[in-house]
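Acyl-CoA thioester hydrolase: C-alpha cells wanted.
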Amino acid sequence: MSVDHRPLASFRVSMRDIDIYGHVHNSVYLDYCEDAVVEFLRHRDILSHFRHTTSGVAYHVKKAEITFHSPIDVDDVVEAKVNVEKIGRSSLSFTIELYRQRDGAHCASGGLVWVCVGLSDSRPTPIPEATRAALSQG
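Answer:
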C-alpha cells in the first residue's frame, strides 16, 4: 500500500482530553486514531463503504494499540497520517502516526485492525470487492 505523507486530519487538544499530569490522557490517543481513520476514508471519498446502511456489512474493532513517543498538551494541534497496512480476507489493518504540529515531534504510533462482519450474525465475512478495490486505489 502507498503512504500519503501529507497529514489527513488534525485535532486541537481540548481541556477535556487532559489528565491530572497536564498532558493528553492515554485513552484519548485511541480516539484520535479512530477519528484519523474516518477522516482518511472521508478524504478518499469511500466512507460510504463503511456505513452499514450503505454497504450491507459492518466493521468492528478487533485490535487497537498505541505506542507513545512524546506527550501532547492542551491546545496543541495534532496532525495524523494514516496508511492501510493490510487488506485481508475479512480484516483491515491501519497504521496511524500522530505528530505535534508546533515542532513536528512524533507523538504516537497507532494500529487498528477492523474486521468485516455480517449484519445478521456479526460473524466475520469477506470484505466486499468494491471496498477492497476502493482501498487499494490511491
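The first helix runs from residue 26 to 43. The chain has one domain: 9-136.

Cheers.
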